[in-house]
Amino acid sequence: MAAILALLGAASWGVGDFFGGLAARRVHVLTVLVASQAVGLVGAAVWLVASLESPPDAVHLLPAAGAGACGAIGLAALYRGMAVGAMGIVAPISAAGPVVPLAVDSTRGVSPSPYQWLGIAAVLGGIVLLARDADAGRTPKLASGVALALVAAASFGLFIVGLDAGADESVAWTILVARGTSTAFALVLAMAVSVGIRPPGRLFPAIVAIGLFDTTANVLVAFATTVGSAGVVAVLSALYPVATIVLARVVLGERLDKSRRLGGALALGGAAVVAAG
Predict the structure, then answer these.
(1) Binning pLDDT at 50, 70 and 90, where does residue 242 land?
(2) C-alpha–C-alpha distance, residues 257 and 168, integer Å
(3) Cα torsion 63, 23, 92, 244: sign
């Protein structure tokens, strides 16, 4: 059950991220983030009311708040990365996030198996192939958006850790607090840099789609962490780039060279090996 929920969450995240990357190519990334997180916050609030769950102690909601802040940073980095670079490069690199919860699992006595270490090595090898700038010649240089993709990966890993800790008490309240924190965090950032938070009307359908897909993914992944290992759930949910890459290829006609296609396969295949190990 945990695997199915995590994979459905991955698909939902991938679609939402594709729309997020598209929107960030047209308006400021913080405008996209504030508006989409606000849409998701409304959805989370409606779900909480319908669930009739009583609020847990405030201390149990602190991890959810931390997850929300990390999630906002991760999404901002991912959307901006996909706006300045190829989605087929940025999305797979951001999938390296499971290294973080796997490390946390290790501190709790749940050490990765030899196969999982092999999977991690494959993920890192894939990142190396994806990260190189094919036009840089002999001079080492990162491709556009790679640094932002790495920030997104670290942030998403921390997001899963916080989500796992909070969901043990209440999934509905965890999602609401995480989404409320991410919305407030994005709003403060937008105000600090004087960015308008109202998106153009033509982007409204995309903004709504981003918020709904992202919130749906959060709910599915939060439920998954309550019935399975956070490390495994993180790895399976990190397969979200598959949906993003497919949409980028079909809708935008993105093409990657053989080396980068190999890198993407290694990164995503390594994540699958970690989950299976």
Answers:
(1) confident
(2) 43
(3) positive
24 neighbors 32 (Cβ within 8 angstroms) = yes
Rounded to whole angstroms, the Cα distance separating 241 from 232 reads 17
State the Cα–Cα distance between residues 60 and 69, nearest whole angstrom. 16
Q: Which residue has the tokens 């796992």?
A: 164
Alpha-carbon gap, residue 66 to 156, rounded angstroms? 11
Query: In angstroms, what is the C-alpha Rg of the chain?
Result: 18
Better pLDDT: 124 or 8? 8
CB atoms within 10 A of CB 177: 27
| Number of other residues whose CB lies within 10 A of the CB of residue 252 | 15
Helices 230-237, 2-24: axis angle to 10 degrees equals 40
Measured distance CA(274)–CA(277) in Å, rounded? 5
In the chain, the amino acid numbered 34 is V
Q: What's the whole-number mean pLDDT along residues 233-240?
A: 73
